[in-house]
Amino acid sequence: MTAIFLRLHPEPGRLEIVNAGHNPGFLIETGKEPRQFNAAGTPLGCCRHELHRRGLRFSARGQIALLHDGLTEVFRGDEEFWPERLLDEFLRCPSRKADGILDALWTAIEAFAEGGPQADDMTALALCHGMDAAEMPA
Is 0.70 surpassed by the pTM of this model? Predict the structure, then answer.
C-alpha cells in the first residue's frame, strides 16, 4: 500500500512529509520553482524499513496538491494525462482556494478524457496557506 503523510506544525509555515511509494505531491509558492515530493521509501508492508521524513517550509500564499494516480492515468485514446500535465493545470489555476483548485483540476481532467470511462479512483487534496481577508468565505 502506498501512502503519503503530511504533518502540519503549529509553528507558521512548518510541515513534514513522508512519501511511502506514493505519487508525488506538489508545492507551489509565489516567486519560486514548483517543488515535487517524490517517494522517499517503498510502499508500506513491502519490506521492513524506516520511513524518511522531509521537513519543508510552507510559506504564506503557498499551495500543496496531493494526488492519487487515478488523476494522472486518465486516457484519451492512447494518450495519458500524466503528472506533468496535472502540474501545469495546477500552476495555471487562478484560484487561491482549495475548492477552486480542485474544481479546475477536475474540469481539466474531464475535458481531456472527452467523456471516456474512469478506470481508477480519483482522490486529491489541496491545501492553501494564508488567504487574504477578501478571500475568506462569509
Answer: yes
**Residue range 4-38, pLDDT digits in tens:** 788 888 777 788 888 777 777 888 888 888 887 77
Containing H/E element for 89? helix 82-92
Residue 107 C-alpha cell reads as 474540469
Q: What residues form DSSP beta bridges with 126? A: 65
Length of the chain: 138
Consecutive H or E run containing 7? strand 3-8
118, burial (CB in 10 Å: exposed 0-12, middle 13-18, buried 19+)? exposed
How crowded is residue 63: how many other Cβ atoms within 10 Å of its Cβ? 23
